[in-house]
Every structure is written in C-alpha cells, then in structure tokens.
Design goal:
about 15% strand
Length: about 190
C-alpha cells in the first residue's frame, strides 16, 4: 500500500536498482559483524527487501518472524542475541509497539536498526537511542519506486534537530535528490 495515498500498488524494480541499493547498504550500514537479519514485516513490503537480500548476498542468516505476535517474537529474538548483532528494519509504528512491549528495558544486542516507511519523530528517535544503546540507528527515506529508499541519516551521535523530525539524510550512491514546487520547478 502506498504510504502517501493509502491505495494498494505494485512497484516493479530492476535487478540493477536492487544490486545498486545492496552495494550502497553494504558500504553504509550492513557490516561483517552481523549474524544476518530479523524480518518483522511481510516479505512483499519493500522495507523487507534489504533484510532478505543483504544477508543472503553475504552468506548470513535470515530469520522470518511469525506474522502473529510479531513484536513479541522480535523481543524474544533480540533478548537471545546478547552482544551479537543483526540487521533490523522497522517502521516507526513497529518501533512504538516495541517500546510499549519492552516498557523501559533496553536491548544489549549490537544491532543495525534502519527505520523507514513513515516519518521518524525526534521523540521516537531519542527513545530508540535509549532502547538500543549499543546499536547503530538510521533514518531511511524513499518511496518504493526508488528500490526501497534513496537517502539515509544516521542518528547515533547526532543531536536531533529542533524541527521535531529526524532529517531524511543524504542521497545514496548514484542518486540525486531534487526539491520541486507544485509546478514541478526546481526550488
């Protein structure tokens, strides 16, 4: 479903676009210390594409969590990891549910948490920073048409802006971002 219109859609992506995205992700956030990924979203949801392909391209494991009680399954798996790390890609809505279930507990795993699909507020980013003190945290932005995303902003050590939202970040490799007005003119 489109996040902007709320209507169902299907997006065809190219193999080149997918491989370009995977190369970008490998150079920016998916590192060799990870055991693989935990997939907490439907495989058809674009946010799950890197969670499926990055570990497989690296010879790592992919763990698909059950659709029922996915947040409880996620908490159980994260607590089992101890100091080990995994890639975890979630929406801010998933993160809110995770905060609720953990109720102030922190996760000791050294995860790479990439958040996208919805705007990430400064408040939620700060709460995630406390919940995942040893993890690398990223805000990820981009429509499905850009093969999952087009920009990335780490928020590990950055001071969160006064604007109330975490910046969407810089464009990924081989990508250019343009801001247009309602007449499609460059701003």
């Amino acid at each position: 479903t489109s996040g902007s219109t709320g209507k169902p859609k299907g997006v065809e992506i190219t193999q080149y676009g997918l491989m370009d995205y995977c190369a970008f992700a490998k150079s920016s956030y998916y590192h060799n210390d990870l055991l693989g990924s935990l997939v907490a979203t439907e495989p058809a949801f674009d946010i799950s594409v890197p969670s499926l392909y990055l570990p497989l391209l690296s010879g790592d494991c992919v763990t698909l969590l059950p659709n029922e009680d996915v947040i409880f399954a996620l908490v159980t798996k994260l607590k089992q990891l101890s100091e080990q790390g995994v890639l975890l890609r979630l929406t801010p809505s998933h993160c809110q549910a995770l905060l609720h279930v953990l109720d102030g507990q922190s996760i000791s795993a050294n995860c790479v948490l990439v958040i996208g699909g919805e705007a990430l507020s400064q408040k939620l980013a700060s709460e995630l920073r406390q919940m995942f003190p040893k993890s690398a945290l990223y805000n990820h932005y981009g429509p499905s048409e850009t093969v999952v995303g087009c920009c990335l902003q780490p928020f590990n050590d950055m001071s969160l802006s006064e604007m109330g939202q975490v910046p969407i970040g810089r464009p990924m490799a081989n990508t250019q971002l343009l801001v247009l007005d309602n007449l499609q003119q460059l701003q």
